[in-house]
Amino acid sequence: MNDRPIAQGSRVTLRPFGPSDVHERYLAWLADPDVNAYSRRAGTKTSADEARTYLASLGKDEHVVGIETDELGHIGNLKYGPIDRHNQRADISIVIGERSAWNRGFGSEAIYLASRHLFEVEGVNRLDAGSANPAFLRMVVRLGWTIEGVLRERVRIGGQFHDWTLVALLRREFRAISAYERNGVQRP
Length: 188
Known about the structure:
By secondary structure, the chain is of the alpha+beta class. The protein has helices at about 25-30, 50-55, 105-120, 135-140; strands spanning about 5-10, 15, 65-70, 75-80, 90-95, 125-130, 145-155, 160-170. Strands 1-2-3-4-5-6-8-7 form an 8-stranded mixed beta sheet, covered by helices on one side.
């Protein structure tokens, strides 16, 4: 992965993730039905060439960053964009593929760091996400995101229909969390 991080927190570093960063463990995450239970990828296998092609095809304002920890290395990815510069908004999504990293707060810190980066560096005013994953929704609500709508039984997962919940965070709602900041430094 690119050595230049876009954000560093107390336990998580976000670095650009590109075609040359595709590795076997990453491909195994993409094929894991539990990792992708709430993903559009569920039930599909992605080859290294397909993953590299996807990453190379991203637009100028679409970015995938690797989520790294000192303890476990690369544990997942976060995608943001495309950034709508006119309306100052961006979509965001996350996958934690490394099972040993689940339920340890790394995803929350990664979303927090990406949000801070998008508000402070990219100048967005609004972040959007949609999900049927209850764990993701609990996580972002704890971070101050607002549930803006529920599309009832919009997605089919494992033969059952699930609601798709739309969430958003505005720049003015973003709150610094010192536990996620490097060295506990409180940011403005």
